[in-house]
Queue: 3 jobs
Job 1
Amino acid sequence: MYNSNSLLAANILTGVSFLVHTFVGDGDVREIEPQMDKDNKEAFNLKREKWTQTRCGWHWISTELLLATVGLYVLNCTNKFEGHENFLKKLMSTCFFSCSAAWLTTIAVSKPFPQRFLKLAQYGLLAVIGGLINNSIDN
């Protein structure tokens, strides 16, 4: 049993996003893994360091998506946070909207490439999730 269709939709989108980000996305990240450069090991090590940092950041986001999925499930399907649901929903909604804004801003200030806002449209998904959570807040 669940309390809100909007929250359920946000929960499903977040759960699917976690799975895709973690498993499909890691494959994408591995495609850009630097290959050994025997002639310039120092440059290779620096590229490897930056790539590993990027991969760590990637899975940091995966972890946050997992935690958001669990949090949304608990909010929607239990009474564990009775009396605090709206505050937590506002907080989670604000987090998703903020991530959407950060994503969009990063695209805008980065060097352009064709159809960048369409190809990197995760900002839209984040905004939809934030909106769904916001829609579930009791007024």
Job 2
Amino acid sequence: MDSLPLELKIAVFKHLRKADLLSSALVCRAWRDVAWDEVLWRTFSIRFSGLLEALIDPALWSATNGLNDQNHDFTPLTSDSNRFPTVAAKAARIDLDVTIVDSLAKVMSELASSAPGKVLFPALHTLDCGEFDDKPQGELAHTVFTGSPIRRISIDGGPFEGGTVYSRRLLTSLLVAHPQVQEVTAFQDRLPATVGIPEFWLLPNLLSLTYSGFISYGEWAKVIQECRVLNEVRLAGYTRQPIPLNPPSISTRSLRRLNLRESSSFELNIAILESTDAPHLMALDVGVAPYCEEEEEDAEEEAEHPSASRARSAFRLLAKRSQKLKSLVISTSIKLGAEILAAFSSLTRLRISDSTLGCQLDDSGVELLCRSLPNLGEFYLSYWPHSEDGGHTKITPKSLGYFSRHCQDLTSLGLPVTATKPEDFVGSILTELVAFREKFQRLEFTTLTLLADRTKDFVSFLIVQCPRLTLLAIHRLGIPDREVSDLTREDMEFEIEDAYFRAQVAL
């Protein structure tokens, strides 16, 4: 074995079960290095506040919620004027910053001038304008891509106002020249608030829009009304101009996915929820957190913000209009309550990040949700900030039983759980978790509060009783029966990991 290259050693170890891998790691240091290779552990991960990151499947960390998730696999071009037309004819993706260096600008300019009616890029479908100021490449985009069947355009104004203003002009000209575009991603955060958004409504075939920058409610309404086939929208940034208190209803039958989580305007988000009648909406990701002028403003005061009742009404209206909604992701600091969330009866995915205890679900609220949302496959609830003793958490192990009895399709669960009494641990929490043993794949404790001497037993039990578990994550471990410093808590997390590995070896 020692003489084999690492690739062959990994190929051999791939045939071992996870328990055998753990045993192999104990043989010697050389075997340990192979057994811990991340390639062998991409089907299982255990995570405590970021520890053991090498074991985590990178796919679990893919940023599907971020705005900038472009694939930069662009076609390389040549500066040889004789070969350029042949290469350009096959180019499908181009980045003005990466692909077209300065040496190419002269070649492209000469070709465009010598054959003004010829399409230089007949196969081009994706154009990334990159992040730059006034450059020759940008000027070329007005002419050299004329006639190209571009379907996707991405542009970044950069960190300075000058670059953003220039990119705004470039994007406008591209939209006019290519009305067939179906997908636009535009970052215009440094654009002055007085400048309106590009005229996306001129694109009759627009399917997907990602926009970051200032936007008014009127511009949002025009995009939704004019873009008849638009099915995905992501907005980030700020609003300008007053938001109407009672906006008229806007009907759209094409909208399927709406992401407002990175929008910084609470009022704009609520106005959009109030006015948008999207009966076929399938996924909503939204932030509803009023702006606080004082950083230390009391959580209760923010939760009862003057607009809180308006936000609750908007969610009730949304539940009536969008009865096909499958995925709801909410970041909130107002009190929504279980009754409002339970009205979304078609949900299969519900994720709540509660920054100031606005939702504050207890066991009875969890029971109501489980009874009202029987098709849930994923449920996640987290509170921020965390308390050291679990005092913010009103959910006990009893809630696990509600999920196991009423949500038969649940495979992923994230909860803050407090089980400080011995009978809680040996009775409720272990008994209820057994109900998930044949279906459970992902278990996350956003906060787990246990007695110090029960933590190892808890993890060992999970490994034995939940054989299909592929992710176990404890984001915050609370130990109320001991004065625990951060260093000691980290040591205890390592002890839990050790208990997990020993349980695997025992299997």
Job 3
Amino acid sequence: QRLESLYLGQFALATEDIQNIGELPNLIELTLKYCGKSAEGLAEAYAAIGKQFPNLRKLYLTSKTGVETDILVMEGLAPCRNLRQVTLNCSWPRRVTSTAIQRLAPLWPQLEELAFDATNPSWGHSRTHIKILQDLALAWSETLDMISLGFDAGGKLPRPSAAVKGRFKKLNRIWVDYSNLPKNRIFPVAEFIASLCTKTPRMSAPDSEEIQDNWDAVEERVARIIHSRET
């Protein structure tokens, strides 16, 4: 009953396996691998986690269902009001929508890290448009420290309203997964990110020189813009 941390990443668990763990009200950190074959089953697994471990602060879950997965499968974690870090690595992450963030934000008011990534990223995976950063800034402006998503940085970027300008107070790092960024998108993307931040977040990509170089250029540009605002 006093267990605070549980690592089950070496086992592939079904929903009933999670339910059989029993209730651990003092559990703060949980790492596990889910082996179900449907998004509905994954949602049930999250509901079981929320019910059995309501005081979780850190949850790292890897799922290889092989199907497209919506971030809203995590709504079952509603009882975990103290959640600070949540990671879902899955086969096919679906694009994150503004509506999804608006539904999740009230559930975890103190969220510091949000990661929703593909277990085996490829160019064929759907990407969340980078404008979702506006919604994340509105949802967790005072707490969010790290974001990890696969981004689509193409197309027209919105002009941030007064409500979101400088909204991110603590954002330190953005993991961009395998998010390709053409050179002609560096400046508009940097200006968009800078408009949302009060300090420069570290832009991190996987081990790909081509991807990382352009995101490094974004970070440098963001730093210049923010510095110019302060002088």
